[in-house]
Amino acid sequence: MDAEAVLQEEDMEDSWSLMSWMASCLMVCGGALPYVPQYQDIQRSSNSEGFSTRVCLVLLIANILRIFFWIGKQFELTLLLQSVVMILTMFAMLHLCCTVQNTNRVSTKQHRLSDLDIRYFWKWSAFEDYLLFCFGFTVLCAVVTLLLLDSVMFVEALGSLAVMFEAMLGLPQLLQNFHNCSTKGMSVKMVLLWTAGDVFKTAYFVVNESPSQFWVCGSVQIIIDVVILLQVLLYSQDTRVKLG
Which of 27, 79, 138, 214 is such that its CA lies 20 to 30 A from the CA of 197? Predict the structure, then answer.
């Protein structure tokens, strides 16, 4: 009887280990999956106007900061790998957008990072400029982190800044919907995917006792996702009333 109980306990531990491993794999790669269809759409249509490269800017900054946060306060390796995957994904998106835009460009005028023109910040023509900016930002973060690594306050602030950038991803869409009083042109499926991913991510942070910055970030993202979904309901009702 005792032997049977031990076997059942071992089976449960094996099952839990397998589920934990699968959840970790989903955390590492799951954040990049929504960009696969977007990448394919841009390739197919040879048009990148529907995709905002500002999303890449926010995610690159957030994940670079998270890597340095990991150096100062080592948490799950899964979240470090997730940041690496997201950075590579954003570079892939930027490379495709630059290629498509340069192919479709009528004017020969190009905007470069070396122009130091704030009007065209993150609207550069060459993919190399995005790499150079990220390299410079990374070096700056590395120097500051090296100098202040022993400061607990700095490390915690670094983590808070990283998750704050990530948490605000949905805010531009929310404000645009509010300004236009419409959600026309926005993919509801995308927002639903955001919501599902953010719920899973926040639950993962809580279960694995990740630093508090992470589950607070996830909670903020869920709230923004829900507000956007409420906008869909509100503005669709307004449209029906006007048509009626």
Answer: 138
Q: Which H helix or E strand runs over 120?
A: none
CA 62 to chain centre: 8
Q: How many other C-beta atoms lie within 10 A of the C-beta of residue 90? A: 23
Q: What is the pLDDT of residue 145?
A: 92
26/197 Cα distance (integer angstroms): 10
34: helix, strand or coil: coil
| pTM, to two decimals | 0.76
Q: Is 46 helix (H, G, I), strand (E, B) or coil?
A: coil
Which range, of 51-55, 59-63, 85-89, averages the lowest pLDDT? 51-55
Packing angle of the helix pair 35-45, 77-104 (nearest 10 deg): 10
How far apart CA 51 and CA 53 sit, in angstroms, is 6
pLDDT-based confidence at residue 241 (cuts at 50, 70, 90): very low
Rg of the chain's alpha carbons, rounded to an integer? 21
Instruction: Count other Cβ atoms within 10 Å, centred on residue 118.
Output: 6
